[in-house]
Specification:
3 domains; alpha+beta; elongated; Transferase(Phosphotransferase), domain 1; Phosphorylase Kinase, domain 1; 345 residues
């Protein structure tokens, strides 16, 4: 059992900051440069040494602002250890529990998570255990915001793609038989359907888990059934409901990559600037290029007939039948309704 002031490699253990069934995490300082602090994972169970080996191998060479960096590793030392970058702050879990995250904060955090995953996936590594406990929030986020570089970091790659499940990998539910549960690696609440069955998984399993984390950040709860975040939180914009649907779905309908997820998370593209409006009556034949597809459109058109993009800041509609009259129309040509507002746009 490790203890304070014990020497581990070049470091002296200061304080135990995490403990589990199979291991501990300590904050330590360099034995010469006392201001150089690190986090050290030390297994307390022989079975966990294998996970430590996997994690050490998995994160070696993964250098990214949103991934906790490996510094030193020796699974054969006494005690075995993995030295990592120390991230002062907290995990994402307390922020979800205390409901302190707004919509913009939640999006900013997930963007950094996805950036880290994009790097890991690009290097052939699937995390397989994305959850709030494995997302660290640096204390500088309180000063600089959640968009600050390195404010959010992924940790615990011990169940990465190359890992083989062990009896200590997961506390699976009693509904799973031992033979089935032994093949499952991860945490059930965040598992993609294919991961729950023990099937082969790829990067899209991490994106499913990110959808669950997004839902939690926006609502404080885990998703159930067909609910979307906007049903529980009125401040959630509609496009984030669509983002969640694309993540929390069957494999073939899910985002194909973290980059695709990031693009949709950024929101729909802004509308192009409206076309200059006519100051006279109908101007058929006087065309201008659509700002989106560059095809010719009439100056009085409210939508491009080629690509469908909206061309005006405010769309004029008939209040009775919902038709789209021309700017010069005084009556709706479909239902005869007298149109409100000036007849010339």
């Amino acid at each position: 059992m490790a203890s304070a002031n014990q020497r581990v490699s070049e470091y002296v253990l200061d304080e135990r900051i995490g403990v589990g069934t199979h291991g501990e995490v300590w904050v330590a300082h360099h034995h010469v440069w006392s201001d150089h602090r690190v986090a050290i994972k030390i297994p307390t169970d022989e079975q966990y040494i294998r996970n430590l080996q996997r994690e050490g191998v998995a994160i070696h060479g993964l250098v990214h602002p949103n991934i906790v960096r490996a510094i030193g590793f020796d699974p054969y030392a006494s005690p075995p250890y993995l030295v990592m970058e120390y991230v002062p702050g907290t995990s994402l879990r307390p922020l979800i529990t205390d409901r302190v995250l707004g919509v913009n904060d939640s999006v900013a955090i997930l963007k950094q998570v996805l950036a880290g995953l994009a790097h890991a996936h690009g290097n052939g590594l699937v995390h397989r255990d994305i959850k709030p406990e494995n997302i660290l929030i640096h204390e500088k986020a309180l000063r600089e915001g959640y968009s600050a570089e390195g404010a959010v970091k992924l940790t615990d790659f011990g169940l990465g793609k190359a890992a083989v499940a062990s009896s200590g990998s997961i506390g699976y539910s009693a509904s799973l038989g031992a033979s089935e549960g032994a093949r499952i690696v991860g945490t059930l609440d965040y598992m993609a359907p294919e991961q729950r069955t023990g099937a082969q998984v790829d990067a899209r399993a991490d994106l499913y888990a990110c959808g669950v984390v997004l839902f939690e950040m926006l609502t404080g709860e885990r998703p159930a059934g067909t609910e979307v975040p906007g049903e529980l939180n009125d401040s959630v914009p509609r496009h984030l409901d669509e983002v969640f649907r694309r993540a929390y779905t069957r494999l073939e309908k899910r985002f194909a990559s973290a980059e695709e997820f990031l693009t949709m998370l950024a929101g729909p593209p802004p509308l192009p600037p409206p076309l200059p409006q006519s100051t006279g009556l109908w101007t058929g034949g006087l065309s201008v290029p659509c700002p989106h597809c560059r095809q010719p459109v009439d100056r009085t058109d409210q939508f491009c007939m080629h690509c469908g993009v909206q061309l005006v800041a405010t769309v004029r509609r008939c209040g009775r039948c919902g038709a789209f009259p021309d700017p010069s129309d005084q009556f709706c040509m479909f239902c005869g309704q007298v149109l409100a507002g000036p007849s010339v746009a």
